[in-house]
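request received
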Amino acid sequence: MAPVTAAEDPETLAFETTVRDGGNEVVLEETYFYPEGGGQPADRGTLGGLTVLDVQQRGDDVVHVVDGTLEAGETVHGAIDPDFRRYCMRAHTASHVLYGAGRRLFDELGYGGFGITPEKVRVDFSTPTDIDDETLVELERLVNRCVWDSRDVTWSRQPQAEALDRDDVAFNTKTEEGLTDETVRIVEIDGWDAAACGGTHVSNTQEIGPVTVLGRSNPGEGLTRVEFAVGPEGIDRRAAEKAAALDAAETLGTAPTDLPEAVGRLREEREAVAAERDALRERILDASVADIAAERFERDGRTWAAGVVDADANALAERVRDRPEGIEVLVLATPSGQLAVGTGEGCDAGDVVATLTDRFGGGGGGSSEVAQAGGLDADGSTVVDSLRDD
Ligand SMILES: [Zn+2]
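response:
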């Protein structure tokens, strides 16, 4: 595969050339358009006034798909969309900077893949290291530090055997990016990273501008995908996160950097309040059951107590299991008509539930000591009153 001219000379964005193969899939004598490859999208722009829809490498040819036709032999003007190309150069170089930062943080690092879209860039790290939030923040900090340090970015072809021997060069073994028959193209960020790559890059890291890590995911076994943004997308994300942090800090009356501590305190307070609330509910329930037990009545030759309490079904079941002294049958109902029945020796709680569901509908069951019912067509007080009145 022939070297891509755009990668060698990424600053030439306008040129005159002759059409070699005409039609709507045009091959030129010479081109500075970047054909899609190695995770970098095709350049946008115009050719002879026609919009370039796609650029692909086919064998040694770079094919430009245009929205019209051009004649073979025609002299045409090529104009590459400068904003999109510049974005790709920055994004692509940023991915090398990110990989270089990964070298400093991760164990047994390998290159798992890379891709640029207009909104974001992804780099797949092959590493056993667990990339947690703290590591992600450190990764972003190192990347922006490298941008600020204004390191030179250079590219050159090296004999393949020599390059493959170098331990410090990252290769994408899946696509063998940058490899041709005899040589490999090495992109180096001075003192930071070296990688085999055929894409377009800026010539100094300061041209990248701010880099914002967006998040991470796991696309496969042993791989961690880190997504980031350069340019407006990244700047906007940062502004949104900062606004959210300031907003939360103001609500809690603290500074953004003290938020973790403030939120931790809040969580502890919430847990303490919830525990206090649960204890109070228990006491209220105890008092209600004691009141109900005081109103005991005789039925079928046994001592019963029945009443309505506002508690959940599980709490009711617990209470009927521990019946107050002297109560042989205890029926507790929620206001909406859920029932729990607890009985002593010689009396079956399931039979009591069956009698009540026969009369009021719904269903239930349980053991001979404790049974429950729900879905009755009557509310709690109706069911309880029926037991006293019969
Ligand atoms: Zn590259």
